[in-house]
Amino acid sequence: MKGIVLSLATLLLVANSCARLPQMHPAAGPAVSPYVANCSLPFPQGKWEFVHYIEATLPGGKKGFVIGVTVISPMTGSIDCVIMTLEGFVLFNARSDHGLVVNRALAPFEKIEFAKGLMRDIRLIFLQPDGCFVGAGLLEDGFPTCRYETREGETIDIVTFSDGSWEIRRYGTTRRLTRTIRASQPVQAGCFAEGAVPSRLELKAYGLWGYELSMDLVSASRLSE
Amino acid sequence: MRQGLRRVFFAGATVAVAFLCLGSADKWTSLREAAGKVNSVVAEFTQEKHMKILSHPLVSKGVFYYQTPGSLRWEYQSPIRSIVLMHHGATKRYLQGKEGLTEDAGANLQPLQLVLEEITHWLEGRFDENTLFSAGFEEKRKIVLAPRQESVSRLISRIELVLSDTPGLMESVTIYESQDSFTRLTFHDATLNRKIAESIFTDQ
Questions:
Q1: I need a surface site. Which of A24, A86, B86, B139 has the fewest CB within 10 A?
Q2: What is the ipTM of this complex?
Q3: Is B17 exposed, middle or buried (0-12, 13-18, 19+ CB in 10 A)?
Q4: What CA–CA distance (Å, rounded) separates B23 from A118?
Q5: Is A188 within 8 Å of A168 (Cβ atoms)?
Q6: Do B49 and A84 touch (CB under 8 A)?
Q7: How far apart (Å, rounded) are the C-alpha atoms in residues A91 and B58?
């Protein structure tokens, strides 16, 4: 019985992680302009500091709650990241610029693979893909999309919805879905100094060691470069 | 108003003079004696997290309840609600999740428990009875705790406690992780020796 349950669970897990890269019907000529205009919608322009309250659901359903501080600069491509407890105790502090520098890493965040993975996730959320722009158009389900291909051979789709929300989907080299980032409707522009910022971001990592991050915005501040 | 200010000034001056006149050992005894008269504290607090990465300090607000001999409720009310309960040696933590306030059963509560136990020691006036930190007066009302072990100093480099004019109370606690990363707790609207229901330390 236990074996059957385990097999079913594995099947479900594999099925869940098997979503494959959908076909895109590219727009051409002047029709491509409105799609391209949405390509940069999820990505903050200029240097920003974000504070999020993060609920992490780890493999096995274990939950963790932390505060995340992220400073991103699209101009330099740099990311500063701090993870702390609600009591203000810093668990992780790192900077990714031309390389990765970990200033502080306490258990369970002490492995370098965690730091690399985290920076990759942050880059996917906040910075425009630095790969090759493949095209823009409509997906099979009718949603407008911008498609990029990274140097590593992964595909990133930026899907925008009519209510102003968006989703970023990353597909691996085998064209299987590896990450999604779903943003809620942006907070009204004017609540912050500039731009509209989603009040919630939900990141899902698929696969055997999949996890979920639910990130509620605490504050967003535009910084000078 | 003026009379109130004068009273505060005289109370402060009396404490300051008392500390200046006392030797270090006497100061600890005097603090323990003052704290011995306190059996419960209810106070509001403001927490400011300062870090180089932050353009403004991250501010949280809450309330805490303390009852001798070691029961504590530490509750953040904004920006995120969370509660830590310490009662009969057991620590529980509740955090705001997508499905409401839930117990953080999987978390490593050891560092948090360490800090909370320290806070209860301070409230009991036991500043110098500590295996992890050595205590010393830096100014008339400021106590500095320095880690005794390297394993602790990697987490917390020092702690500064500023005592309140009211015996048995603290004005602020600053926990330094490094020179440019520290957490400052400022206490206000404190009431002493009020009867607190046990459920405050057991129920979320």
A1: B139
A2: 0.81
A3: exposed
A4: 53
A5: no
A6: yes
A7: 16
